Amino acid sequence: MVSTSSLDRLQSLRAGDAFSYYKLNYSVKDYSSYTDAKGYQTEEWLLNTHSDLEYYLLREVDPDNSSHLVNWYLSEEVAEPSLFNAENQDNILTYVWKNMQEHNTPYPELKLYGDSYYFESKTEGSYEGDYDKTTRITWDYWDRSHQRNLAIEAWPDGDLHVYLTKLIKPEQITIIEKQLVKKTSNPFPIFQVIFSVGLIIWGLLLVMG
Fold it and tell me: Which of 46, 144, 161 is CA-nearest to residue 100?
């Protein structure tokens, strides 16, 4: 079981911090948080790797899941996804944002890369970053094992994002300590200056004499 102090350190990660997970290092680029009226909360850390891939570290508080109230995830956005309704094999990507904004009923099952994901929950609430606050609607789907999550996010400005997420254990994360920069003291070399000036004056006196 991970200690409370270790969890506190994880939650205090901010831009410029770094951690390691399964021998891969991640740098924190940004931090944001999300809440809704029912008490659902997520904290999100935007991450970057040495290969310039972007991920998210997520901490979720789900009041509807009393057996697993707090969960941690590692998430990656799906680039140019094809998202299919399992009932008719339609690619819903072009119109799912409109359905979400109109509060239509979520699809019971979706397919991504041939894998099935089943609808579990819908959230709508406030999303707060470093510079602004807005709202978003999220549909959450899970695979049968409940280890992989498919999340669809619809934003008011028309943006739609699709993420694949896996459940992780916080004790598997190792925070990388920042290197302490030792400041070396370089006192002003007053005695060397006096000695040098004395040599110059002595040389001038020799020339003039």
Answer: 161
